Each structure stands twice: as structure tokens, then as C-alpha cells.
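Question thread 4412

I'm putting together a teaching handout and wanted feedback from people who do this every day. The idea is simple: show students a protein as raw sequence, then show them the C-alpha cells that encode its fold, then repeat with a second protein so they can compare. Below is the first pair exactly as I plan to print it.
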Amino acid sequence: MIARERYMKVVKPLIGNEFIKIITGVRRSGKSVLLEQIREVIKTEYDNPNVIYLNFESFTNRKYLNNPDLFYGFLAENSAKNEKTYYFFDEIQLVQEWEAIINSLRVDFDADIYVTGSNASILSGEMATLLSGRYVQIEVYPFSFKEYVELKKIEIHDQTAINQAFADYMYLGGMPSVVGQTAPDDSKLQELSSIYDSILLRDISLRIPKGNQEILDTLALLLMDSITSEVNLNKIKNRLKDVGFNINSETLKNYMAKMDQAYLFYTVEHANIRGSERLRANSKYYTVDNGLWHSQIESQGTNLGNQLENLVFIELKRRGYKVKFGEINGKEIDFVASKNGNKEYYQVTYEIPRDSNREIENLLEIPDNYLKTLIVGVDNGTRSVEGVNVLPIKEWLLSE
């Protein structure tokens, strides 16, 4: 079990305080393992702490799902009266009125509360009303490449091993249960396909009207087939119509939003860079893991630039950036990344053509002094061109 140090650095200063720690992220990304690691820290650092842990996907706890009074009664009976109780709830969104229960624990007891959820809807509705300003969200992603290398115990200076690890990572991604396997690629892709199906069935389908599973499946594949490309709502509608599904715009928007909420896809809007003539209505879509993508869309050895672009997007999100795509003077900027009041610009290309500086020229069009970086798949030794940083993808991923 690899320690998720990136997330533990965020969580450790919060242990014992009144904020509710809400751990979110795509199904099977490691939220439960992180919860276990937090419990172990508390058990190690505190003398005989009172810890309550419940996983609501376990059959054992199904009696609580539709009976909030029974659930709260159990918690009240087992909570410490004169000292802190540490509560850990896995997939809490499955419990009716969970928001009110969590709020009551906060009010009635000396409570330190940690919950996980595989759907962003956990952060809306009643929760936003009852717990506004009283929680911290920690979004968990599949393994980064740096975590992948650490898990595989690969020496960073072993370039041959790093190259092979990166090829595997770019194709099969970083889902923890897959990274830990020694099985053939076909078996790993089957596991990834199973995870993908589970996300659709358990985190999206249950939130749309019954009988529309086939539409949802088709829409998800259309989006997977459009990763890194601009997506126009009307074109998606027409493609669905071509295969026999008539769906209105509002329903389509709702289904696409549900996929975002399950952390399977990320919708990326257009940034208005100074000098741009217009703000585009189209969005781009990226997916949380290259392995999930390849379990549905076979593209090994092709579209390497798109695969790199998706990796860079997820890594920027993992590092806490808000990400948009941009355009300036008719030239596209892959990513406009913002964090803590600063902006950074990124272009991604598999290889810099010998007879073209297009990717560099796009960045040079931007009339400000924020950091500009070109990330490349093939390292030709160049590290800077006219003030633009040039970084090989592996070096950038391992530099976090």
C-alpha cells in the first residue's frame, strides 16, 4: 500500500479540528485507502482514540441506508461523551439525510469527521446549506506518474526502466488496482473496463431516469472518442440521432453534467486571453485516467499527442490548478492554468517538428510575463526557446 503523501500533507494539519474532511474522486482512485491511512495515523499518534468506521457499500451496513434515525442512534450510542470521537464514513452519500446526521454529530459531540464520496453531488444540495464553510474538500486522483514510479521501485536515473514505465503509464493509466497487478495488458484492460462500467452504473445511471442506460453508454463512448477535442452540443445531439437516440439539449446537458460529477470526465471551458477576438461556446473534454480511456477506445501507438495532452491536463488538476483552454489571434493555447492568483500557459506536443515552431509561436503571442511552458514527448535536448520553457513530459511529471 503506497502512502498518498500528497493528500496526507493536506490532511495531517486538519486532524482534530472542527472542519469536516470530504474526500472525493472517481471510483477506485484510492479514497478508501487514504481513509485507512488517516485512521492509522490517528491510532498511532493518539492514545486509545475512539474511532468509528462504516463503509456504506458493505452489506453489513445496508440497514442504515434508509433509516437515518437508526444510524444516528448507533452513532450516539458509540460516541465518546467526554473526549473526541473520530468518524470515518465511506461513500456517505448513499445514506438518506446524511447531511443532517453529520451536522448533528458536529453539534452534539466533540467530533472529527472524515467522509468519502464518488460523486461531486455530495458537495451540493442539503450539504451546501447545512455545512457551508465547515468542510474541506480533498479530491483524490489515480496515481501520478511519480507515485507510479515509487510504487514500482524504479530508480529515476534508470532511463530504460523509466521509459518503459512511462509507456505503460500513458497507455494503462494509474488506477491503483491496475497498477498493482502483474497481469498481461489484456487483463488490465478488462479490469479497467470493469471499473468504467461500475462508474457508469453506480455513479451515473442511478441519477438519471430508468430506461436510458443505452443512451448514457453511447454518450460516454462519444465523449471518450472526443477527448482533447472541442465538443459542440449540437454535434453530439446529431451523432446520437444518427444512431437512433433523440434527446433534447437540456437532457443532454444533464447527462454530461452527471458524468462530470462522477469524475469520469472534466469539462474545460474557453479562457478569454487578452487579444482574443471571441470567447468560444464550445468546451473540451478530458478523462480522469488514460487507462479508462483506452479500455473503451483502442488507440495504442496512435494519437500520442492527445494521450500526452490528457496526461498533462490531469496532472495540472492533480497539482491544484484551475484549467481552461485558450486562443489568441487565432492560435490555440492548450492550457491556461490558474492557482493562487497566478497564471501559467502550457502547450503539449509529442514531438517538435524540425521545420516548425508553431507550438512555441502560439505561446509567444501571449502579451504577458506569466510562465510559458512547452511539454514534449520526445526530448531533443532543448530547454528554452525565446523565454519559453521546454520540458520533456517525464521530467515534468517527476518534478512535482
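The second pair follows. I'd like the answer to focus on this one:
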Amino acid sequence: MLRTLLAATAFAALASAAPAQDFDFSKMSDAQKSAFGEAVRDYLMKNPEVLVEAINELEAKQQAQQVENDAQLVKANAKDIFEDGYSWVGGNPEGDVTIVEFMDYKCTYCKKAYAEVSDLLKNDGNIRFIVKEFPILGQESELGARFAVAVQQIAGNDAYEKVHDALMTMRGSLTIESLTALAKDQGLDADAIVKAMNDEAVTDVLRQNYQLAQRMAISGTPAFVIGGQLLRGYAPEAAMAQMVAEERKAE
């Protein structure tokens, strides 16, 4: 890719020096093409900063295009992102900006982000927060997600919030035994929750989350929708706060 960009950069620079009608690379002889290649090399050896500028410009354009594409994905899937009717809603339910997190209970960066998001919600006070279980890291991930969804469906949102917090700070393996112990510690009906983990209603929630993530080209965790923006990966509190501020300014 670097060689292609290098050649393209020099090609554009040198070609611009000649009238368009006088410059047709496809009509060059082999000798002319060879001479042109030498000219490209000579130009870049004397002006290496051109390549750096070209790479920076290309990266900036690609980044801007990705932001625009992501914004369109958020817009096209807004109802399922923000108002699916089943995902837990925390923070300030009446907040003026909504953050939605696609997360996995075995994801190291999700656990790191948990503290950042918690601080952001507390410090801001006007953010609506939605969690979407998106288990992609294996059997333990799915067990944790099924357990959390089953808790919500059987015991309600308050119980879900406590279990979610516990799972995000929990160390060790996620097994039926450890999840049963957690349910009992929370004063929940552990047997009923474990039994419900494989119910179709739980499976349907995860299926819808998977399908939404697929439509939005989300393949890793954590991933955040912050207002109309999509953040792919972990970011510190300050970066997320800046995105929240941008959303408020845009309204």
C-alpha cells in the first residue's frame, strides 16, 4: 500500500506540471514509463515531506468518511438502538443525550470502560444510559449475558442493575455455579433464573442484539453509540464527555 501511495502521490505531483492533454501514462513507451519511475523516485527523495502530507490527508479523509458512514448507520437503526423496548435503561432516564453500550461480561476493555462510564454518568447527571448484551468471547460470555437478561425478565430492572454491576466487577470464571451463587447473594430466586437462561425470550434478546450489531458493522466490544455518533472501542471518560458535549452543541 505504501508503494502504491508513494507512486500515486508522485504521479499526481508530476502530472500536474503538464497539461492534461499532454500527459497519458497509458500511451507511454516502456522507456518513457521507466524514466517516469525514476522521476518519481527522484522527486520523493528530494521531497519526502510530500509523502507524509499525502498519508496524513488520506487518513483524515478516511476517518471523516468513517464518521459519516457511522452516523448514517446510527440514523438508520435509531429505533432499535434507543427504543427497543427491552434493554435496561439507567443513568438519567430523562437525560438529554443517550449513550448505548454493546458489551461483553468477559471483555477486559468493557470492564475498564465500566468505571469510566460510571464516573461520566455520575459527574454529568443528564445522560440516559442503555446496555445491550453482546456476548462474543465464548461460552462464559454467553452464560453471563443470559444470566443478566434472565434476571431482568424475572426480577426486574433494579435487580438487573445490581447484577450487571456485580458482573462487571466480578473476577474469576462465569459458570452456572458462580452465577447461582451471585443470584443467591442478591437475594434472587437462583433456580428460576438459571432455568430461564435458556428460554426463548432470553435467546430472542441476544439474537436481536446480534442482528443490530451486524447491521451496524459492530464486531468488537465495547462499542458505544453516543447520541448520533458511533465509538468503536474503549475511550476514557474525558473523550466520551467531549462527544456528549458535541451532541449537545449540535442540538
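Top answer:
Good format. For the second protein you could add a caption like this: The chain has two domains: 2-47, 78-250. The radius of gyration is 26 Å.
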